[in-house]
Amino acid sequence: MPKVFLVKRRNPVAAIRSWDELPDEERADTYIPVSLDCMLHYSTEDYRSESSSSSSESGGGHGDPGGADLCRLGSGSAQEPEPSDHLAPPAAAAPEPGTHEEPGLHLAGKRPTARSKIKFTTGTCNEATVYSCELCGKGFRLQRMLNRHLKCHNQVKRHLCTFCGKGFNDTFDLKRHVRTHTGIRPYKCEICNKAFTQRCSLESHLKKIHGVQQQYAYKQRRDKLYVCEDCGYTGPTQEDLYLHVNSAHPGSAFLKKTSKKLAAILQTKLTSVLQRNAKLSEEDK
DNA sequence: AGATGCTCCGACTTTTTG
DNA sequence: CAAAAAGTCGGAGCATCT
């Protein structure tokens, strides 16, 4: 099966550099507001049959599936996922794929074949409430986790790449993807200067090529890297990045997105720095 | 105030390409 | 086989809604 999601070429039409500047309706006209309907029409079997017959279209779009309506709520011990139940053949009422009018389905590609990697998270929380997915039986401790998981089953994706049109469920996924278009590679190997878009790629490179094993405890947070998605600049702190963007990319969406609280703090620091610099330059005269 | 949604990021993983 | 790209989940912070 050809790899359908690899970015091969840049869409010459897409000239918009920053997707964040787009309103929701433009960056994702395929977005379907939270509603149960779209998912009730979409059984697992439909999903699978579509997957198997999927064209070479890219990952296509998911949309908000409608949250808790699709979950079964129960205790962890009494509510084990029942995959066979969830994977049962589609209800007869289920429409032919593509027959129900789902806005944006024209853009929504077919989901790739179901992956084998299934992580069941219900096993360790017997006493806790578990929200389980009606489609695949996965369980989640938090409803918001289930809600997000449900997006994986949906064909409509909210976040579209302005370069190639590929859709993603998560803004971060889109951000990560866009780096393949912009060429920004924040993670550099200090030994050979080779750069990577993802930290795991760098760590894999370090281990396999240079035999350098990163010493991180399980789930230990690495030093966060603050990346300017406009030019690839990386800074050690958010303040550092803010200062950079403020001076180098005044119109950047990053500045608009920075929360007011944080922006106020950073702006105060920035102002004091500027004042100090001005004072120093005056003293030099 | 609590619930919920959105966003962000790390982490682990798989799949495909060259 | 290494690298690239992507799928997905855990967790957290913030904003908005009820």
TrEMBL record:
UniProt-listed SMART domains: ZnF_C2H2 (SM00355)
One Pfam family recorded for the sequence: zf-C2H2
Region (Disordered): 47-113
Main location: nucleus
GO cellular component: nucleus
Keywords per UniProt: Metal-binding, Nucleus, Repeat, Zinc, Zinc-finger
Domain C2H2-type: 131-158, 159-186, 187-215, 226-254
Subcellular location: Nucleus
PROSITE patterns (UniProt xref): ZINC_FINGER_C2H2_1, ZINC_FINGER_C2H2_2
Entry's Gene Ontology BP terms: angiogenesis; cell population proliferation; dorsal/ventral pattern formation; embryonic digestive tract morphogenesis; endocardium formation; epidermal cell differentiation; heart looping; heart trabecula formation
InterPro entries: Ovo-like (IPR027756), Znf_C2H2_sf (IPR036236), Znf_C2H2_type (IPR013087)
GO molecular function (one): RNA polymerase II cis-regulatory region sequence-specific DNA binding
Similarity section: Belongs to the krueppel C2H2-type zinc-finger protein family.
UniProt name for this protein: Ovo like zinc finger 2
Gene: OVOL2
